[in-house]
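hey can u check if this looks right to u? its 276 residues, i copy pasted from the old doc so theres a chance i mangled smth
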Amino acid sequence: MSEPFTLEWLGGPAEFHFRKARPEGDFDWASLEPSRYPPSLVAAAREVWMGIVLAEYAAIAAFADVVGALTQARAPLDLIGMTGDFLADEVRHVELASRVVMQLGGAPARSFDTTQLAPRTPTAQNAAQRANELALRIGCIAEVFASATAVPIMRETTHPLLRSVYESILRDEARHRRFGSLYFEWAVDRLDAAERARLGAVALDALQVYAPLWRNAATLDDTRPEWAGFDVHDLGWMVPSRYVPLARSVVRDEILPPMRELGLVLPEQELETLLA
């Protein structure tokens, strides 16, 4: 059931212990003055940052499921510990992105279904299959896609505050995107032919989420007349005509090759159709 998306902060001992793990950092929030920009550009940037809030919030739930799956599959203890640490990272990312949204004028109304935050896996799976699938969906696809597309956006973001927020998030994401390869470094010898074929189908299913990014390219509007004279990248936004080919290239060049190296049986024709 969908419900309004809201965030709460408890403070007190909870905040104290969280800050010991993830200090607040030195961010000059007041330096972001939305009144200096056209309202429609601010609205576009606010949508981008709200999307980051929602994605990072979903990542909290996703990594919580991953940690449980790794534990049940008796994955290496240090891998479980590394992955468990990602939860605090994702909470921090939600905090940073939401503060940007508030500085840009407040969060646009959003609804979400709490039962759909993390990928669902078939109930008939055994522990190893569930860990394999979640590691693939989250570690090899979602985290790689998120970080690989965000790096070029960060490099073009000219506002010092927003660039520093991106840099803080991406320092963590550099660790997160290693999870999938580390997991399969341990698990690869346990994958039989049937599991490699199943995971190939899982990969195709997971990548379907990103297809609208390039399929809707012809309908995307890059800029508006009132934005003339402003740096549209200042607020952490990339024009769609550049983001679309970036998204497609990340899938082709960074996500699919490691899967082929693992010997996953990818449905190549379906993938070509997906990426067309």
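DSSP finds ten helices and two strands in the chain.
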